[in-house]
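Note to self: user wants both folds in one dump. Writing first protein now.
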Amino acid sequence: MQPQPVLRVHELTTCFDGDDTTVVAVDGLSFDLLPGETLGLVGESGCGKSVTSLSIMRLLRAPGRIASGRIEFDGRDLLALPEKAMRGIRGNRISMIFQEPMTSLNPVFTVGKQISESLMLHQGLSRRDALAQAEKLLDLVQISDPARRVREYPYQLSGGMRQRAMIAMALACQPKVLIADEPTTALDVTIQAQILHLLRDIQARLGTAIVLITHDLGVVAQMCQRVIVMYAGRKVEEGSVDDVLDRPQHPYTQALIRSLPDFVDGQDHDVRLAELPGIVPVMTPASRGCAFAARCAQAQPRCSEAAPPAVDAGSRHRVWCWARETGPASASAANAMIA
């Protein structure tokens, strides 16, 4: 029997209101997150990944607003909670690792003080006990000499250490859900591997469910069990990592995979990477059809007229594409394109 989702996002729509128009950043997004699972949200910059995370945490600022939908955590709709109740969940039961640790950490407070704040707020620890726990957390995320680092300021730490400090802060109250927004951005490959290993290790210890936001399909392959591919605020494909990466059905997913370098025996064969022409469109409430239609080599006339339906491409593998509606023949043709 499958466990109940710890987090359920249903038909989430998030908008940004301008003087002349409204931009739809997230459009009817739905997904479930199971206990102990790692779910990847993938797509290029501007597809709505980070806005989704801020919507879940209810950290959007004007002109951003959640226009509709439900976000359920342990059966409670977060969007219906008063702000005081939400503060009891945010940073406690649901935590977030932000994309830029240097700008997310307060430069005028020590790392230990910033970690201990949530412990004092949510667990009622004294300042002394919270600082001692912060030191243990820095040790948990494998920062050397935590007794010294806990008294240092963010500028005194390397990029990798700052990212580890952010992880320690997010894990301070042992949350049930951790949202990691590009946790390895701007880190070299060695530190990136260490951070990913650390997240897997901590998840194994604490059983935390993770929403991993990234544009890196290699990170998804290492970390995730399921993946959702987003484009222009919409979900275009979802399924297990093996299904989506090995048998992509949506033309956008196929384009993402074709853009990756192909290394054989450690050697690059000097092949020009495939590029995707055009830019991500700005979606408004009046937008019709598939958002990818203008950039898609497989587009049909109806793609610009109506949003595509969900098509079953296998066990829990779904794709939103008119070209796949005809079934197995189209799926075989799609796979042949990336072979």
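First done. Writing the second protein, which came from a different request thread.
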Amino acid sequence: MTATTSTHDNGILAVHSVDEFVFSVPDLGKARHFYTAFGLDVRDEGGALALYTFGHPHRWARVLPGGDTKRLEWISLGIHASDETRFRQGLATKGIATIAPPAHAEPTGIWIEGPDAMAMQLRVADKSSPSQPAPREFPPASANAGRSPSRSKAQPTRPLYLSHILLFSVDVDAARAFYEDVLGLRLSDKSGSVIAFLHTPHGSDHHLIALAKSNGGGLHHSSWCVPSFDAVGQGTQQMAEAGYEKGWGVGRHVLGSNYFRYVRDPWGSYAEYSFDIDYVEAGNTWPAADHPGEDSLYVWGPSLPEDFIVNHETAVR
């Protein structure tokens, strides 16, 4: 029996995955170029771009044609089929009304308005968040021969799966309470009322969803698991060669422990290469804590870009 099955059998009511996040951009061509260079499997589906990882059947995100800037349109959260009725009952008990789905969204599942007026879909889906720690590949031990991959034969970085998304929020504490009390997520760590990291009790990376203080809602970054530190470096290089030199990293986070490189997209938000993030096993309790502000960002790495936490989605509204 898997850990995920055991938590479900124990009656824990919680979303188990970010099944999909959907955002719009002014130029699908630029989005295609960026995410293809990043190493994702970018497909045309129904007038939008669909983001997959190579070798994995799951669709992690969609990019719709939009207005003058990037805009997070909605997020779809995966739930177990046997929990749908329980979620409907819980929402009714808490006085949370269902809403009509946004344009271009499937009318299936349960649609509600989440924090910062974000449309959220709770839909029955297979668990796509990881059910075990991410793979960790390291060079072999020294054995009287070179261990570095050859630059001439180096393969481009291709992420394995979506690790998490970080959302902007006007009120991090209120948003965190909603994700915990309504959707069943649990706090991993936080730093005051500025940032919070949440995981699912069904098993996930250190954070499935993170929340950062801002003047409105929106998407700060999507984070994609890669299997090695070399993959972070190779990804940094391939994106620079594709014209995307701006970003932050390489560095290492304190909260989550992962090594990172954030690459700035054409609209001021980021896609992150993430290696070796902490994992919260299903059924286990993570020692959540409130950390000093200096620990909310990184142990080591380059200085933070001045506009790293600017919410470009609200800047033009």
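Dump finished. Worth passing along: Residues 159 and 226 are 5 Å apart (CA to CA).
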